[in-house]
């Protein structure tokens, strides 16, 4: 029950029903709106406060925190924010973080990946090829590819990063995949990375990863220009 209420309140905040700086309805009003006790509402608000989404002030009420305070590295927050991720700062932030990490992860994977690691990357790539034309299936495989790549780096920090950013990556990739006019480009770019890993060519792996991110940046720019996110 509390989890459902927390998700509902978080969803209202993430889609802008309650904007940063605004005060949420009172506990009694929230009780009536969600059909739960004050205890459930209080626990839900405490959870949101621990994630940085709200600020609870005595005698003032509960205010929505600035977006910069939201803990977007928390997987649960990423899951809440994800469906409403068509936001320039968030999408750009995800891409910038990937630009810093993924090419280096690809380079490391070329020399460190085990045969099992490579098999998981290739399996995700084959799933991408098989899913062309189906945005949801393609995105699922695309995310699996990049998570497998980060894990194949055998860098413990990068491996943790994969878990942290997976939800944001899923929604960001869905936004870019949905508007990609030439999906074959993405397949070819991912294929080049797979081949570089097979050949243990670190320089080629780094270049291929950078090319994938360049294509993603182009498609994200298109998604932002159109101003609408694909349905989740």
What does this molecule look like?
This protein is 71% helix and 3% strand. The chain is mostly helical. It has a two-stranded antiparallel sheet with strand order 1-2. The longest helix is centred in the middle third of the chain and has 25 residues, at 88-112.
User: What overall geometry do the principal axes of the alpha carbons give?
Assistant: elongated
Question: How can the largest sheet be summarized?
Answer: 2 strands, antiparallel
Radius of gyration: 20 Å
Distance between the termini: 23 Å
User: N-to-C SSE series?
Assistant: HHHEEHHHHHHH
Alpha-beta content class? mainly alpha
Helix percentage: over 70%
Identify the notable features of this structure and list them briefly.
2 strands; 232 residues; mainly alpha; disordered C terminus
Gist of the model:
The protein is mainly alpha-helical.
Present the secondary structure layout.
Blueprint lengths: L1 H13 L12 H8 L3 H13 L3 E4 L3 E4 L10 H7 L6 H25 L2 H16 L4 H18 L3 H24 L3 H16 L3 H25 L6
Antiparallel strand pairs: 1-2
Helix pairs in contact: 1-3, 2-3, 4-8, 5-7, 5-8, 5-9, 5-10, 6-7, 6-9, 7-8, 8-10, 9-10
């Amino acid at each position: 029950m509390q989890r459902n209420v927390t998700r509902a309140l978080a969803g209202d905040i993430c889609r802008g029903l309650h904007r940063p700086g605004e005060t949420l309805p009172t506990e009694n009003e929230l009780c009536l709106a969600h059909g739960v006790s004050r205890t459930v509402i209080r626990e839900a608000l405490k959870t949101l406060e621990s994630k940085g989404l709200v600020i609870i002030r005595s005698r003032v009420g509960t205010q929505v925190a600035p977006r910069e305070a939201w803990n977007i590295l928390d997987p649960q927050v990423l899951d809440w924010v994800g469906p409403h991720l068509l936001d320039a700062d968030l999408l750009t932030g995800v891409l910038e973080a990937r630009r810093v990490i993924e090419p280096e992860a690809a380079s490391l994977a070329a020399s460190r990946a085990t045969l099992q690691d490579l098999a998981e990357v290739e399996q995700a790539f084959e799933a991408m090829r098989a899913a062309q034309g189906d945005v949801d299936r393609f995105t699922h495989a695309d995310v699996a590819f990049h998570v497998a790549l980060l894990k194949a780096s055998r860098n413990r920090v990068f491996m943790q990063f994969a878990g942290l950013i997976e939800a944001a990556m899923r929604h960001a990739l869905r936004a870019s995949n949905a508007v990609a006019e030439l999906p074959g480009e993405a397949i070819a770019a991912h294929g080049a990375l797979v081949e570089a890993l097979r050949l243990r060519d670190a320089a080629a792996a780094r270049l291929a990863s950078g090319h994938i991110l360049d294509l993603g940046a182009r498609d994200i720019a298109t998604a932002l220009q159109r101003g609408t996110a694909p349905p989740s």
